Amino acid sequence: MKLYSYFRSSAAYRLRIALNLKCLAYEQVPISLLKDEQSQDSYAAINPQRLVPALDDGGELLTQSMAICEYLDETYPDPPLLPKNAPERARVRALSLAIACEIHPLNNLRVLKYLKHTLKQDDEQRNNWYRHWIAEGLAPVEKMLAASPRTGRFCHGDMPGLADIFLVPQVFNALRYECSLDAYPTIRRINDECLNLPAFAAAKPDAQPDAVS
Questions:
Q1: What are φ and ψ of residue 30, in 5° steps?
Q2: What architecture is the 2-79 domain classified under in CATH?
Q3: How far apart are CA 71 and CA 133, in angstroms?
Q4: Beta strand 27-30 with 2-5: parallel, antiparallel or unpaired?
Q5: Which residue ranges make up each domain of the chain?
Q6: Which of 39, 42, 76, 153 has the smallest set of CB atoms within 10 Å of its CB?
Q7: Cα dihedral: 17, 111, 30, 154 (round 10)
Q8: Global confidence as pTM
Q9: How many CB atoms lie within 10 A of CB 26?
Q10: Is the distance from CB of 198 to CB of 20 less than 8 angstroms?
Q11: How far does Cα 50 stand from its chain's mean position?
Q12: 196-212: pLDDT as tens digits
């Protein structure tokens, strides 16, 4: 199994956690976003969207982190990333998509580069953009978690799953951009619980072979 990854990519970070939780061995193939390696034709043959991550599972090429996580859960079902009953699965997917669709696309590298090079926004303006959309996104996620009796040690119950896989990389990004997390005590607590687990700790960006300062 090969994971085409970049150490600081949120979506790749998600997959590292998922693979670690399922104790699946994988080889990392670094794709440097800073060097724009994802735009090369050789990588486009693997992922036509020219994005990381991509996963090669015995010749089966997979893209999009949510789709890959669900593929892993269907193909390697133990331990499960999703609950058994439909309403609980819907809740976990809603939490995951609140991050994957409502926060991450507004703050990914393509958007930040467009703000810098095309719209000529300076560092402070780009950082303010980033922090604004982090706050807009995390506030409802905090409410969803804090208000539900289904929230336990983790986003759903007392076992880590899909929603935690999506939450932790987003918290990492928020901290990297010096976003205050004071308004999100449930998110902070769950993030701390996750990072105490080896599967999450081993997936952290600074623990990857392609990590740079």
A1: -70, 135
A2: 3-Layer(aba) Sandwich (3.40)
A3: 29
A4: parallel
A5: 2-79, 86-200
A6: 42
A7: -10
A8: 0.94
A9: 16
A10: yes
A11: 17
A12: 999 999 999 999 999 98
